[in-house]
Specification:
The chain has 259 residues and is an alpha/beta fold. The chain is 22% helix and 30% strand. The chain is built from 6 helices and 14 strands. The strands form 3 sheets. The chain has a 6-stranded mixed sheet with strand order 5-4-3-2-1-14. A 6-stranded mixed sheet has the order 6-7-8-9-12-13, with helices on one face. It has a two-stranded antiparallel ribbon with strand order 10-11. A hairpin with a 5-residue loop joins strand 10 (197-199) and strand 11. The protein is globular, with a radius of gyration of 17 Å.
Amino acid sequence: MKEILNLSLVQTDIIWQMPKENLQRYEDMLAPLKGKTDLIVLPEMFTTGFSMESRAMAESMNGISVVWMQQQASALGAATCGSLIIKEKGSYVNRFIFAHPDGRIDTYDKRHLFAMAGEHEFYEPGSERVVIEYLGWRICPQICYDLRFPVWSRNDLGYDLLVYVANWPDQRAYDWRTLLKARAIENQCYVAAVNRVGSDANGHHYRGDSCVIDPGWRHTLAELSHAECIFTQIISASHLKAVRNKLPFLKDRDIFTIN
């Protein structure tokens, strides 16, 4: 397990439903990270914004955005992740893509679809929790609304880092900040969370509040302002181990089955 993992949070505005234009912007923004980070985290639906136009905006796993993520991961020497609208076997999913520098891809499909925005009418929910192994770190990906459902992120999977990508509106910013801290404390893991900024075509406003949260000492290691920016934060394997050894309460967790 790599002792120090460098996480780069990409908190950005998103040009509404313009994948090519967004990809070009990201490429320019990410270029200075070459050789300086291990993992780049982009927001939810980072090429379109939180769109219900699944038929019009969906790409395949061989589409331009996934290929771009693979190219960026290779060129920058860092895994690149975020969620995209993907069409597969006639269905549409909000899919977290994790592109490794060697070209491999891991995926997670959003389980909890945000019914208040009609997401359940245009996308199929995922059914499996996922743990991704990268540089010896075990990473559990989650997407936006998943944050409200602690059973789904319960650390009986043996992961070290919980990653959330989101389009989380500013009127619920208190919930975002509070729940992220709760997930770190209850799961004794690092939490890295990336939210977008700006406004979308539906009139929703986003303030970012992207952050990295410590696994046990109940404090935020990094919290971004409400503007576009990229911030890199280191996290430590030995610190994580020390936290879990000092307060080994995960061994007392309740055992249950998720259907």
